[in-house]
Amino acid sequence: MVEAVADDVDMIQHLDDMAMTGRVAAIRARTETRELAPEDCDDCGEDIPIERRRAAPWTRRCVRCQMLAERAFGGRA
């Protein structure tokens, strides 16, 4: 029974990884076709709000994309 639970968890993790890979590929495809300005999010291409850029001038992502990246990469993004 424990083995079946582990298999389910592994499958869910695998599907989640596949979905994240697809999302990352879609974002890259959208943003690689245009040149980004320094105030544009590297992931989605939308403007990074001025308040965020003032608070964290080194940032390359909007808040939403940063949260998604941290979730995807376990805080290593």
Automatic annotation (TrEMBL):
Residues covered by the Zinc finger DksA/TraR C4-type domain: 41-71
Domain of life according to the entry: Bacteria
One example of a Gene Ontology biological process annotation: positive regulation of secondary metabolite biosynthetic process
Zinc finger motifs (dksA C4-type), residue ranges: 41-65
Keywords: Metal-binding, Zinc, Zinc-finger
Transmembrane segments: none
One Pfam entry name: zf-dskA_traR
GO molecular function, one term: zinc ion binding
Full protein name: Zinc finger DksA/TraR C4-type domain-containing protein
Natural source organism: Methylobacterium hispanicum
Organismal lineage: Bacteria, Pseudomonadati, Pseudomonadota, Alphaproteobacteria, Hyphomicrobiales
